[in-house]
Amino acid sequence: MDSLPISRAFTLLEPGPVILVSTHDGRKANLMTITWTMVLGFSANFAITTGPWNYSYAALRDRRECVIAIPTVDLIDTVVGIGTCSGADTDKLSRFGLTPAAARHVSAPLVRECLANIECRVTDIVEAHGIVVLEGVAAYIDTGRKERRTLHAVGDGTFIVDGETLDRREMMRSKLPEGL
Fold first, then answer.
1. Is 1 within a domain?
2. In CA terms, which of 18, 36, 62, 74 is 20 to 30 Å from 12?
3. Taking the alpha carbons of 91, 57, 60, 152 in that order, is the dihedral positive or negative?
4. 36 to each of 13, 14, 46, 48, 176, how far by Cα in Å?
């Protein structure tokens, strides 16, 4: 095996999928691209990594709510564009031609062009690590959407796209928690 600089080790574990986080600060909606996400167990609890350097962070901290919007591969240029400009001076929904839809439980909008949206409440912020813990309160999926492949960031400007689905549900059925 060849040596890899420890500063690049994170590129081996980037989890994905890449998500858009929709927030609303009481005046306007904003979107940010997040590549570091985590599911917390077999529940609707999630964690994202962000911090004060992101314009949306103040809305997450102060309003304690957001929407996780899950884009597909056909939105890659939109996802990268959203991640490379600031909501401080850009209306990202308008600039990237995305359609906001009213959420039922939070003030942040759903994003119609995405495969799925999850309305969330912020339950904890671990400032030392830039971790925002979220609890999902409602979820929606566009079952009619033809493109369903999601993006996974490697961390160096390259992305991996979901591929073939391998079904081992029957093999694992006795090991999964009830209801999955």
1. no
2. 74
3. positive
4. 10, 7, 11, 6, 25
Show Cβ contacts of residue 40 under 8 Å, excluding neighbours closer than 6 positions: 46, 47, 133
In a domain, 164, yes or no: yes
Per-residue pLDDT at 154: 86
Domain range enclosing 143: 6-175
| Beta strands in 61-128, from DSSP E residues, in sequence order | 65-70, 100-101, 110-111, 116-126
Q: What is the pTM of this model?
A: 0.90
CB proximity list for 12: less than 8 A, separation 6 or greater: 4
Give the torsion sign (CA, 27, 33, 39, 44). Answer: positive
Number of domains comprising the chain: 1
Concatenating the DSSP letter of every residue in 71-85 gives: --GGGHHHHHHHHTS
* CATH at 32: 2.30.110.10
Q: What percent of the chain has pLDDT over 70?
A: 95
DSSP state, residue 92: H
Question: CB–CB of 158/75 below 8 Å?
Answer: no
Place of tokens 């400032």: 127
pLDDT digits (tens, 9 = 90+) for 54-63: 999 999 999 9
Q: How far apart are alpha carbons 71 and 157 in whole angstroms? A: 17
Q: Does any domain span residue 73?
A: yes
Residue 32 lies inside a defined structural domain of this protein: yes
